[in-house]
Amino acid sequence: MRLLVLLHGLGQSPQAWQDQVTAMPAGFEAVAPWLKGTRPGRAEQFSVTGASDDVLALLNQHGAEQMSLVGVSLGAVVALDAAIRAPETVSHLVLAAGQVNPPKSVMRMQRLVFSLVPAKRLAAMGVEKQRFLQALDEAARVDFRSRLGEVTAKTLVLVGANDKANLTAARDLAAGIPGARLEFVPDAGAQPNVENPEAFNALVWPFLAGAAAEG
Questions:
Q1: Which residues contact 27 (CB under 8 A, 6 or more apart)?
Q2: Which residues of 162-190 are buried (b: 16+ CB within 10 A; e: fewer)?
């Protein structure tokens, strides 16, 4: 069995991976945790390194030496950070709607848009507004440009075919990570795992099949 960690996006919860877990082939032990600092009702704040430390701690908790990471949006940022900081522990990496160095103007606009969303609307999605905005601010600060070459995991970069906002970052990730492959998820935007789970799964599971075979 191979340890597979599914990392949700900003504004999502671990339940966002339901369509992946139900379609999961044999050979994996799947874990879909809350990103540390994003779970409602907890006092802790989000940081990329804090969240990736939490992910890496899963190795000891599950008695594994390596794991496969699948992340979307904020989860992709955390997954990439873990793969850079502890490359020997990540065998396979899937980055969907990820970022390298988010354009500051775009992030400011996103923050403005979400600051206008009523807290009750976000709460209905299982998201606390202030926690959401704080995580967005942290994500805006990431800059992986000089460190992409440190990734040793087999890497699949995904971007929704309708996701123009993350297209440049997807191309930069695929170009900067050694051996990475870029694929487009049809009929999907910034949350391809929930917007078109069938197409997402059709790309992810064959890629991860090698991880299961190695386990």
A1: 1, 2, 211, 212, 213, 215
A2: bbebbbebbebbbebbeebebbbbeebbb
Return d(Cα 28, Cα 67) in angstroms, integer.
10
Spatial neighbors of 147 by CB under 8 A, at least 6 apart, are 84
pLDDT tens digits for range 37-67:
998 888 889 999 999 999 999 999 999 999 9
Instruction: Say if CB 24 and CB 88 are below 8 A apart.
Output: no
pTM (2 decimals)? Answer: 0.92
3-state SS of 93-148 is EEEECCCCCCCHHHHHHHHHHHHCCCHHHHHHCCCCHHHHHHHHHHHHCCCCCCCH
C-alpha dihedral, 102 to 10 to 89 to 205, nearest 10° = -110
Q: What does residue 31 show for φ and ψ, rounded to 5 degrees?
A: -130, 130
pLDDT in tens, 108-144: 777 877 788 888 887 877 778 888 888 889 988 999 9
Residue 79, helix vs strand vs coil: helix
Task: Please report where in the chains the tokens 């403005």 appear, as a residue.
Answer: 112
DSSP string, 7-29: E--TT--GGGGHHHHTTPPTTEE
Examine the pLDDT at 14 and tell me if it is beyond 60.
yes
Q: CA-CA distance, 143 to 35, in Å (whole number)?
A: 19
**Dihedral in degrees, nearest 10, Cα atoms 87, 65, 211, 161:** -40
